[in-house]
UniProtKB/TrEMBL annotation, chain A:
Pfam families assigned to the protein according to its UniProt record, in alphabetical order: ABC_tran
InterPro entries: AAA+_ATPase, ABC_transporter-like_ATP-bd, ABC_transporter-like_CS, ABC_transporter_ATP-bind, P-loop_NTPase
Coiled-coil segments on the chain, per record: none
Family: Belongs to the ABC transporter superfamily.
UniProt-listed CDD domains: ABC_NrtD_SsuB_transporters
Sorted UniProt keywords: ATP-binding, Nucleotide-binding, Transport
Domain of life: Bacteria
SMART domains: AAA (SM00382)
GO molecular function: ATP binding; ATP hydrolysis activity
Location of the ABC transporter domain: 24-255
Descriptive protein name: ATP-binding protein
Automatic annotation (TrEMBL), chain B:
GO biological process, one term: transmembrane transport
InterPro entries: MetI-like, MetI-like_sf
PANTHER family: ABC TRANSPORTER PERMEASE PROTEIN MJ0413-RELATED, ALKANE SULFONATE ABC TRANSPORTER-RELATED, MEMBRANE SUBUNIT
Family, as annotated: Belongs to the binding-protein-dependent transport system permease family.
Transmembrane segments: 71-95, 107-129, 135-158, 179-210, 230-252
GO cellular component, one term: plasma membrane
Phylogenetic lineage: Bacteria, Pseudomonadati, Pseudomonadota, Alphaproteobacteria, Hyphomicrobiales
Cellular localisation: Cell membrane
Repeat as UniProt keyword: no
Protein keywords: Cell membrane, Membrane, Transmembrane, Transmembrane helix, Transport
Name listed for the protein in its UniProt record: ABC transporter permease
Domain ABC transmembrane type-1 span(s) in chain numbering: 69-249
Main location: membrane
PROSITE patterns hit by this protein: ABC_TM1
């Protein structure tokens, strides 16, 4: 008994010494897609996400970015290695406290905007009045209040993606995973959505992992950017941006923004060429 | 900005007004065509609109018609219920189990192509004369398109919706009821509309060939007794019933088919 208490105290002092434990930990995680010719999507990968961090992943197309999100979220199982979320092992089930926003429009076309957002809490234990409040807040926060009664088909792509983000927000996730959420949007909308993402990140205090193919997006939004290699994916660089927590898209005029983007590109250029070469001229399938 | 959501509501009354005019014009044209046809083929094959309506006015007041009408309605109701529930359940299962679906699809398409009237002697020998044979014949007509449409809808559902359901930690049951079913509902309703008319066809054929009850029997009876207004009148009743039911299903489609059933989506 006393030994256990002592052990716990030791752990506490240890934690104080190295900072809070990571929200997510990947240890030697790999993912191989079986088949006649098995595809190694993820080479052994280690990754720690710190609480409240904005972390982006960039990499050439087909490098396993989405696979990383899959195993990290519990949507997919790693072939080997371990994934933990808040110290609990993640194994094929998305843990509570994790919210995911996909690249494709995942809003439900048969529900109004309000019902779409409320769907996020439909099976939770949150009381009705509290859930009502959260839905109202999320609608206002994402600028959807005027469209609460509209159907997704009546909205633009950017607005529909906001609906999906709002649907995730109502659950108050401590970790938000975004898989190229703005990939299908035009450049101006993407910049503005980036600002909104930063606002959301500050207000919720959540940890964010953003997968993107846009280097400027990663450089502008993140505290830290992980650069992935061509397949099989692994991290070949970690870039600390050093931006203040209060920031928005105006930092694109900061000279450091150019430096960061340039460094990301210099690390990625060879990898992208390799990925293109692997797919042959004329691009991927 | 909320005007986006109001637009359909604002255009509807105008559309409805022009729609009712279209309907009236169509009705007049149909009556004219009927009268013209009557003059061309003669009294022995097709009764005139006036004569038919006069006959119906009397016949519908008597007790005979409603008994037969109820018999058709009952047979049709059962056939549709069995075909719809069975078709949707089988379609959902086959759509979800990709391999079973791939095996079943060409078989079902083949069955769909068979003229099912040829199976009628067999159905009669299995079920005997009367209600169950009519229901069975209605079901074999209607169930296949309902299965095929449901299966197709499940197979083509956007995978990201199912991923989103997993991301929101829905159970299999919740995913089926709250994501899968509403996502495939518009296509299922289309399948039901086609299944509906084929079921009706099956039931009527059943009544015409081997039954003593129902609207189909009345048509054949009219032919046998050379009661042309009876035959024409029953055809008219069946046409009106089918049109009304189709209208109801179209309305259901618009009401519950979600925004994808409105033109904006296309």
């Amino acid at each position: 008994m006393t030994a256990l208490v002592q052990r716990a105290r030791m752990d506490d002092t240890l934690a104080e010494a190295v900072g809070p434990p990571p929200v997510v930990s990947l240890r030697a995680v790999t993912r191989v897609y079986p088949g006649v010719k098995p595809v190694e999507a993820l080479a052994p990968t280690d990754l720690d996400l710190n609480p409240g961090e904005f972390f982006s992943v960039v990499g050439p197309s087909g490098c396993g970015k989405s696979t990383l999100l899959d195993v990290l979220s519990g949507l997919g199982r790693p072939t080997s290695g371990t994934v933990t979320f808040n110290g609990q092992a993640v194994d094929g089930v998305v843990p509570e406290g994790v919210g995911i926003v996909f690249q494709e429009d995942a809003s439900f076309p048969w529900l109004t905007v309000r019902d779409n957002v409320a769907f996020g809490l439909k099976h939770s234990t949150v009381p009705a009045d509290e859930s009502q409040r959260r839905v109202d807040h999320a609608l206002r926060f994402m600028g959807l209040a005027d469209f609460a009664g509209a159907y997704p088909a009546q909205l633009s792509g950017g607005m529909r993606q906001r609906v999906c983000i709002a649907r995730t927000l109502v659950t108050r996730p401590s970790l938000i995973l975004l898989d190229e959420p703005f990939g299908a949007l035009d450049q101006q909308t993407r910049l503005l959505m980036g600002d909104e993402l930063l606002r959301l990140w500050r207000e919720t205090g959540a940890t964010i992992l953003l997968i993107t193919h846009a280097l400027d997006e990663a450089a502008m939004l993140s505290d830290r950017v992980g650069v992935m290699s061509a397949r099989p994916g692994r991290f070949i660089d970690m870039v600390e941006t050093g931006w203040p927590r209060e920031r928005d898209s105006s930092i694109v005029s900061d000279p450091r923004f150019g430096e960061i983007t340039a460094r990301l590109w210099s690390r990625l250029r060879a990898e992208s060429l390799r990925a293109m070469g692997a797919q042959g001229p004329g691009g991927g399938r | 900005m909320s005007a986006t959501a109001d637009v359909p509501a604002r255009t509807t009354p105008a559309r409805r007004r022009s729609g009712s005019w279209d309907g009236l014009i169509l009705l007049v044209l149909a009556l004219l065509a009927w009268q013209g046809m009557h003059l061309y083929v003669g009294e022995a094959a097709l009764a005139s609109p006036v004569k038919t309506l006069t006959f119906l006015a009397g016949f519908l007041r008597g007790p005979v018609f409603w008994g037969h009408f109820a018999a058709t309605l009952a047979a049709f109701g059962w056939a549709l219920l069995i075909g719809a529930v069975g078709g949707i359940v089988i379609g959902l299962v086959l759509g979800e189990r990709r391999f079973a679906g791939d095996v079943a699809e060409p078989i079902l398409a083949g069955l769909y192509a068979i003229p099912k009237v040829t199976l009628y002697p067999m159905i009669l020998l299995i079920f005997g004369l009367g209600m169950s044979a009519k229901v069975a014949f209605g079901v074999i007509h209607g169930i296949i398109p309902i299965i095929l449409f449901t299966m197709g809808a499940v197979k083509t559902i956007s995978p990201v919706l199912l991923r989103a359901a997993r991301a929101m930690r829905l159970t299999r049951r919740q995913t089926a009821l709250e994501v899968l079913v509403p996502a495939v509902l518009p296509e299922i309703l289309t399948g039901l509309r086609i299944g509906f008319s084929l079921t009706f066809l099956g039931v009527l054929i059943g009544e015409m060939f081997a039954s003593q009850r129902g609207l189909g029997f009345l048509i054949v009876n009219g032919i046998n007794l050379h009661n042309v207004p009876m035959t024409t009148g029953m055809i008219l009743v069946i046409v009106l019933f089918a049109l009304a039911a189709n209208g109801l299903l179209l309305w259901l489609h618009r009401r519950f088919g979600g925004p994808s059933a409105t033109p904006e989506h296309a």
